[in-house]
Specification:
Helices cover 32% and strands 19% of the residues. The protein has 230 residues and is of the alpha/beta class. The protein has two domains: 1-17 and 65-104 and 149-230, 3-Layer(aba) Sandwich (Rossmann fold); 19-62 and 107-143, SIR2/SIRT2 'Small Domain' (2-Layer Sandwich). The strands form two sheets. Strands 3-2-1-7-8-9 form a six-stranded parallel β-sheet, with helices on both faces. Strands 5-4-6 form a three-stranded antiparallel β-sheet, with helices on one face. Helix 7 (91-95) links the parallel strand 2 and strand 3. The longest helix is centred in the first third of the chain and has 17 residues, at 46-62. It is globular and about 55 Å long. The relative contact order is 0.19. The structure holds adenosine-5-diphosphoribose. The site of adenosine-5-diphosphoribose (APR) has 23 residues, from helix 1. Residues 9-11, 14-15, 20-23, 26, 86, 104, 170-172, 174-175, 194-197, 213-214 line the site of adenosine-5-diphosphoribose (APR).
Length: 230
């Protein structure tokens, strides 16, 4: 089976009602990254950081996967598919994708500050800023903040290097190291970029650009891939 690697950003969840970061009206127009998405912000004001992620979690829990998430999961019938996402939402999983690697963490999880291997699923959108586990460890959002390492990057590169087809959907490609992933796709892999602002983005030369929204473009792209490769 051919390997399809789908690399997604906030744009794929936009049509599910989840705000992106850098579009007009994006989250980073309303909030300062250094106030809510850095380890220093957490140390300074955990209540503010927690409120920010509680609001994001509420939005995610109210959202449903859209036609683009669903089309990607349908590829699994014909291809070996890995989704590498920068998104912290769980819409790929809820759409049925079975291999999803979250480069920037997961909003539906918390983890121990004392022992990062202790990770807990959250059931409600609201969590307390001083939440603890049963051993009294303090819990923090399971999110990769600005200034932190991206622990899954090596695994993402390894998977990307084996791609026959590499599809980027809805990312401004501004945040590194995630944005560098496309450089690791083999030169002979077929590459696609789906984004309504694709023409403004930096990209490699051998990429097919689809200047449309995820819901407009991805179901048709998936159909074409199935027809041409299966
Ligand atoms: N369909 C497809 N793409 C869309 C849509 C849509 N309906 N709407 C917007 N987009 C595109 C925008 O044109 C933009 O290029 O999605 C992209 C969103 O870019 P960002 O907001 O920068 O999101 P992303 O690239 O995922 O951000 C990377 O930055 O702050 C962080 O950690 C956060 O993982 C995130 C990282």
């Amino acid at each position: 089976m051919k390997h399809v690697v789908v690399f997604t950003g906030a744009g794929i969840s936009a049509e599910s009602g989840i705000r992106t970061f850098r579009d007009s009206n994006g989250l980073w127009e309303e909030y300062r990254i250094e106030d809510v998405a850095t380890p220093e912000a957490w140390q300074r004001n955990p209540a503010m950081v927690t409120t920010f992620y509680n609001e994001r979690r509420k939005q995610v829990m109210e959202a449903k996967p859209n036609e683009a998430h669903l089309a990607i999961s349908s590829l699994e019938e014909f291809f070996n598919v890995t989704v590498i996402t920068q998104n912290v939402d769980d819409l790929h999983e809820r759409a049925g994708s079975s291999k999803v690697l979250h480069l920037h963490g997961e909003i539906m999880k918390l983890r121990s500050i004392q022992d990062p291997s202790l990770i807990y699923k959250v059931k409600n959108w609201q969590v307390a800023h001083d939440a603890q586990n049963e051993s009294g460890h303090q819990l923090r959002p399971h999110i990769v903040w600005f200034g932190e390492m991206v622990p899954k990057m090596d695994e993402a590169i390894y998977i990307t290097k084996a791609a026959d087809i590499f599809i980027i959907i809805g990312s401004s490609l501004e945040v590194y190291p995630a944005a560098s992933l496309v450089e690791f796709a083999p030169t002979n892999a077929q590459k696609f970029l789906v984004d309504p602002h694709a023409n403004d983005l930096q990209k490699t030369e051998d990429i097919t650009v689809i200047n449309k929204t995820a819901v407009q473009a991805v179901p048709a792209l998936v159909k074409n891939l199935i027809t041409s490769h299966v």
